[in-house]
Amino acid sequence: ELKDKFIKLLKDFGINKDKEKIDDSVLKTLSSLRPYKEENKGK
């Protein structure tokens, strides 16, 4: 399941060159992996 998430992330990187969309995808993936997503959002 984690592998699927990262594969989707890689596709997002390839398809969405928009930095905000990439950052959002990263945050969504991190949020499912790490409980302290809110701290990461502050960066």
From TrEMBL:
Organism: Mesomycoplasma hyorhinis
Identification of the protein by name: Site-specific DNA-methyltransferase
